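To: structure desk
From: M.T.
Subject: fold request, one chain
Message: Could you run this one when you get a chance? Sequence is below, nothing fancy, just the single chain.
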Amino acid sequence: MTTRIKICGITRPEDAQQAAALGVDAIGLVFYDPSPRNVDIAQACAVVNSLPPFVTSAGLFVNAMDSEIRGVLNQVNLDLLQFHGEESPEFCARFNRPYIKAIRMRDDVDLQVEADKYAQAQGLLLDAYHPALPGGTGESFEWTRVPGDLPMPVILAGGLSADNVGEAIRIVQPYAVDVSGGVEAEKGVKDWGKMADFVAGVRAAK
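Reply: Done. Structure tokens follow.
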């Protein structure tokens, strides 16, 4: 099965268009003020409106208020929600959109329990744990910690780049990989050469 690719932290339409031209399956928009990749409504609309058909637009939220998420959904045509905080399954499911739930890989995390808890999710996004940051840390975790029998798709994130994504895919065999900092020229601005190298690394992985 071909490993799907999501490029997160997109802030510019031209980066989204280049990602689509490379065959990326999804792009991510960050709606989290503390993030250097945060976008406002105008930026998000410009990015989403620039996408060709069959490229999924995902909106990333971290412990956002119900009203904040609904405000974004009323103005931005998002296909998928991505929750990176401590959101409950009930909260994640209330917006009538498919969603994925990010799980930060703490030492004591039990992915089977999390998969049961978020059974309505489209998948679990596994990211490195950092005590102060909900994501985008540029750090990886020990990939052998991911069991091979989870009952839902796994999206692997955390410190991925063209240099290590092939090994990560060989070990985890994820449904998809998610990259942000590993394909940037600077925070929020993608390096098109790094994006191309990353996609090539995914395609070459066995």
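Reply (cont.): Strands lie at 4-7, 26-30, 56-61, 80-83, 99-104, 123-127, 154-156, 176-179, 184-186, 189-190. Let me know if you need anything else for the meeting.
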